[in-house]
């Protein structure tokens, strides 16, 4: 249950990296990536609620009462799995669009972070946070965030957000 709010931080990464991008073609692509990140957060959060909290509550109920819950847990896991698939595919697509936007803005400097983010997103589909690959996947997401944010600092001057300071 403690990880439930933390998975949303993966969606926040998309928003952080694309923070200054709101106009033109890049703005449209960035908006699509942001929407996909929100879809991920909603659906993956639902997966965790069902597979983690609800299935755990059913198992605890069976253990404490001795009542047989039968296929209830497998039904809950089946529904959760479908929700999780929508979420993880959305995250993969969001990071794909992040890669396109940053490549258009920074060129090849965005490739390392984009590749790491896409590989981590693909791995996340099957590894969740389970050791050893889930842990590696989460570390890869962290590395991707650093690489993508660093690449954004090299954005072409005409694509950066201009800040006007009034004196």
Q: Can you put this structure into words, describing what you see?
A:
The mean pLDDT is 88. The protein has one domain. It contains 5 helices and no strands. 77% of the residues lie in helices and 0% in strands. Helix 1 (4-17) packs parallel to helix 5, helix 2 runs antiparallel to helix 3 and helix 3 (72-106) runs antiparallel to helix 4 (111-127). The protein is elongated, with a radius of gyration of 19 Å. It is an all-alpha fold.
Descriptors:
167 residues, mainly alpha, 5 helices, 0% strand, elongated
Concise account of the structure shown:
This protein has helices at residues 4-17, 24-65, 72-106, 111-127, 133-152.
Which series of helices and strands comes N to C? HHHHH
How many angstroms does the end-to-end distance come to? 49 Å
User: Average pLDDT across residues?
Assistant: 88
Please identify the structural class as seen in this structure.
mainly alpha
Helix count equals 5
**Are there runs of 5+ residues with pLDDT below 50, and where?**
none
Main beta sheet: none
Binned, the helix content reads over 70%
Question: What's the total number of strands?
Answer: 0
Percentage of residues in DSSP E strands: under 5%
Shape, per Cα inertia axes: elongated
Rg from Cα: 19 Å
> Any idea how many domains?
1
């Amino acid at each position: 249950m403690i990880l439930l709010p933390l998975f949303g931080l993966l969606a926040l990464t998309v928003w952080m990296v694309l923070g200054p991008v709101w106009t033109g073609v890049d703005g449209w692509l960035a908006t699509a990536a942001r929407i996909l990140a929100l879809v991920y957060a909603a659906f993956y959060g639902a997966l965790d609620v069902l597979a983690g909290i609800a299935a755990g509550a059913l198992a605890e109920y069976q253990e404490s009462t001795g009542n047989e819950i039968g296929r209830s847990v497998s039904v809950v896991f089946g529904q959760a799995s479908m929700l999780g698939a929508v979420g993880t595919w959305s995250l993969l697509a969001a990071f794909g669009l992040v890669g396109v936007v940053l490549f258009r803005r920074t060129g090849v400097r965005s490739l390392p972070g984009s590749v790491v983010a896409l590989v981590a997103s693909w791995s996340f589909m099957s590894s969740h946070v389970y050791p050893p690959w889930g842990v590696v996947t989460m570390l890869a997401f962290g590395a991707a965030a650093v690489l993508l944010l660093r690449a954004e600092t090299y954005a072409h001057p005409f694509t950066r957000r201009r800040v006007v300071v009034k004196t």
